[in-house]
Design a protein that fits this description.
- This protein has 325 residues and is of the alpha/beta class.
- It contains 15 helices and eight strands.
- An eight-stranded mixed β-sheet has the order 3-2-1-4-5-6-7-8, sandwiched between helices.
Length: 325
């Protein structure tokens, strides 16, 4: 199975490295000319994944049309740019493995739903889980959820992508796998706020637990399974990104917790903190579904300019309630 990767950021590059294991031919598309040149000339993505030697069988391109000979495409484009890229990509009936995490503004569609809307003839799978790109690219042990409704395709993709240090766990619950990845980005910002504001480890643990409850409520309301959300693509990813400054979303939250305005923090970034775009869309979708998500609402308010003290006070003054309702 010849694979193409659409998206030349850190995660796309790491996945290309996974796919190139054992000398497999992989082609990666990047929008940035310097990324294409760096990968082809030096076997390194110096812009987004520096100091990680890449397999010489990875070739980069700036022309989506050159991916037309691939058997399947790994889509690693931020949710808010995905629609435009998929309109231009040579999809046909090729399987699309969605590796980005988010919800599209305006439509409130998950990334897999965008793909199915634009290319209904293409089978869709989702790859999601606790994955820092630099660790994956270096071959450190990693486990992910590979979700696909087609059992045969899921097995073929698992055989092609899986290996001793990149374990894939199969699931038919595409929706649950997608929602875990989207919601955890917002909750990682919240945990970063706790860190930046110096609110303590007790507060972070409580926030992770209550945030996971929000993730589960929303995921089930959208048709996902509780078991999926308690797995690698939900709770597993949440634990990773809520506890490390290697997470772009967590780092953004740290800045917010220190009182730095959101527009300034976001303007300084070449990489995307997907949770910033997802938060207001997620909250709107949750309200439409009748799902209460106060932590995510708090993050959305902070990104809109609310003060940390006001948001924290509002959360702490909510009425007492039973835990599991």
């Amino acid at each position: 199975m010849k694979l193409g990767v659409i998206g030349g950021g850190a995660w796309g590059t790491a996945l290309a490295q996974v796919a190139a294991r054992d000398g497999q031919d992989v082609r990666i598309w990047a929008r940035e000319d310097d990324v294409v040149a760096s990968i082809n000339a030096h076997h390194e993505n110096t812009s987004f994944l520096p100091d990680v030697p890449l397999s010489p069988t990875i070739r980069a391109t700036g022309d989506l049309a050159t991916l037309a000979d691939r058997d399947a495409l790994l889509i690693v484009v931020p949710a808010q740019f995905l629609r435009a890229v998929l309109r231009e990509a040579p999809v046909g009936g090729r399987p699309l493995v969605m590796c980005a995490k988010g919800i599209e503004a305006g439509t409130q569609l998950l990334v897999g739903e965008i793909a199915r809307q634009l290319h209904p003839q293409a089978p869709v799978a989702v790859l999601s889980g606790p994955t820092f790109a630099h660790e994956v690219a270096r071959g450190l042990p990693t486990a992910v959820t590979l979700a696909c409704a087609d059992d045969e395709l899921r097995e073929r993709l698992a055989e092609r992508l899986g290996g001793p240090t990149f374990r894939t766990y199969g699931s038919a619950d595409v929706t649950g796998a997608e929602i875990g990845g989207a919601v955890k980005n917002v909750l990682a910002i919240a945990c970063g706020v706790v860190e930046g504001a110096g609110l303590g480890l007790n507060a972070r643990a409580a926030l992770i637990a209550r945030g996971f409850a929000e993730m589960t409520r929303f995921g089930v309301a959208r048709g996902g399974m509780e078991a999926t959300l308690a797995g690698l693509s939900g709770l597993g990813d949440l634990v990773l990104t809520c506890s490390s400054t290697n997470s772009r979303n967590f780092s953004l939250g740290v800045g917010l917790g220190q009182g730095i305005p959101a527009d300034r923090l976001l303007a300084d970034r070449r990489t995307v903190a997907e949770g910033a775009a997802t938060a207001p869309v997620l909250c709107a979708a949750a309200r439409a579904a009748g799902v209460e998500m106060p932590v995510c609402e708090g993050v959305s308010a902070l990104l809109d300019g609310a003060g940390v003290k006001d948001v924290v006070t509002s959360l702490l003054n909510r009425p007492f309630r039973e835990e599991f309702i």
